[in-house]
From TrEMBL:
Biological source species: Paractinoplanes rishiriensis
One GO molecular-function entry: hydrolase activity, hydrolyzing O-glycosyl compounds
Residues spanning the signal sequence: 1-21
Family under the similarity heading: Belongs to the glycosyl hydrolase 16 family.
Name by which UniProt lists this protein: GH16 domain-containing protein
One Gene Ontology term from the biological process aspect of the record: carbohydrate metabolic process
Amino acid sequence: MIGVHGRRALLGGLGLAVLMAACDNTTPAPGPAPSSGPVGGAWDVLWSDDFDGAAGARPADRNWIFATGTGYPGGATQWGTGEVERMTDSPANASLDGRGRLVITPLRQGPGAGSWTSARLETRRTDFAAPPGGAVRLEASVKMPDVQGPAAAGYWSAFWALGAPARQAGATNWPHIGEWDVMENVNGRDSVWHTLHCGTPVGGPCNEPTGISSGELPCPGCRTGFHTYAIEYHREVTPEELRWFVDGRNTFTVRADKVDPGTWAAANQHGFFIILNVAVGGAFPAAFGGGPTAATKPGVPMLVDRVAVSMSARRS
């Protein structure tokens, strides 16, 4: 997010004042998007989900868990970001559509900003990591919620990843354990944000809670069709790099020499788990036009056609 998505349950007592400072297309994007590629190796698919299954079914339990409620046990309320929805495991909020896609749908259950429900899915695996001398790539084919203007107020869709230690009960170790925001979109804007969160909760080498961010990047057509969003962590180059991509185009890069070696290692040199969710409200939408209102339209989903993790180790 503008650095505030990292947040999610891990910011503890930080207030929103601090945080504020800081597409149903029938032709999904084909296959993995290209990239600049790893040096001295090739990509091997480590893990993937194509969301095959009957309409209304749950996504595969072997791959995903639902994070429910308004925060992690022992963590900050409202997922640490001020968002107002309650995450559920109801098929109404997240299920397969029978066409090889995951559908995550925010719904309004009654009057008031706090009556929203949605879903947040996290991979069971927390070991998606770049080996020393190698690289890892996380990618997803996503169609953002196709909603605009006042009807989109408060929508916050995301494909992102947290460092494995974030899943510890009562964890308050954000952001130094790392967060990779691969795709974030708010309020129906034709744009996308990429962000690395690291360092200390306020200020520090990573300018938290904003993080090291691409800022708002134009993303025409990202609401109305599927596009492939990816991040690659390259440890086979010096200095190491994080590279973000939209449809194979390198849209943002952060090099390890941007921060001190300890901060970089703590944020990146370990396993991650992937998160897919649509939040409602919170500091990020508020910073770009406001949260949900009576005009916000419920029931506009984020669609995910495929998620994959690929790795490369240097070949001798």
